Amino acid sequence: MSKQSQPQQQQQQSQTRAAQTSIPKLDVLEKQLERTAKQKRPLVLLVTMPGCAWCDLVKQDYLQHLARDQDKEGVFVFETIQGGVELQRYRITMVPTVLFLGPQGEIAERLIGYGSRDFYGAYLNERIANAKKKLI
């Protein structure tokens, strides 16, 4: 029987937690935007592509916990694939892109790419706070 190293065990535990908390897939954008108006909660939408390693990092490091705690955090969190007809008006040119949407469209500056692990969480929180203010 071989023993796993501590980093391997931590990686496995992290992957297990990530698998347990998935981000819901966006179904009908307009329906979700109606919910944002009724409940005064912004829609945090991750636009991704299959095989995008940076997208996976954003999901694992930031958005999965937000999706798990979305009621407590006062947001709706969804994921969608770039190229959908509903998203054409947002002109997504790079993934990962995180949009912050309300009934009238974008309500906070989008997050494009994954520049810095050190600052990404702060940028995300700032934009969520700005989006919430616009829905009050």
Notes on the protein architecture:
The protein is of the alpha+beta class and 136 residues long. The chain has helices at 6-20, 29-39, 53-68, 70-73, 117-134, and strands spanning 43-48, 76-81, 97-102, 105-112. Strands 2-1-3-4 form a four-stranded mixed β-sheet. A hairpin with a 2-residue loop joins strand 3 and strand 4 (105-112). The mean pLDDT is 87.
Give a brief description.
This protein is an alpha+beta fold. Helix content is 47%, strand content 19%. The protein has helices at residues 6-20, 29-39, 53-68, 70-73, 117-134; strands at 43-48, 76-81, 97-102, 105-112.
Global geometry: globular
Mean pLDDT: 87
Radius of gyration: 16 Å
Strand content: 15-25%
Termini Cα gap: 58 Å
Total discrete domains: 1
- Which percent bin holds the helix content? 40-55%
CATH class: Alpha Beta
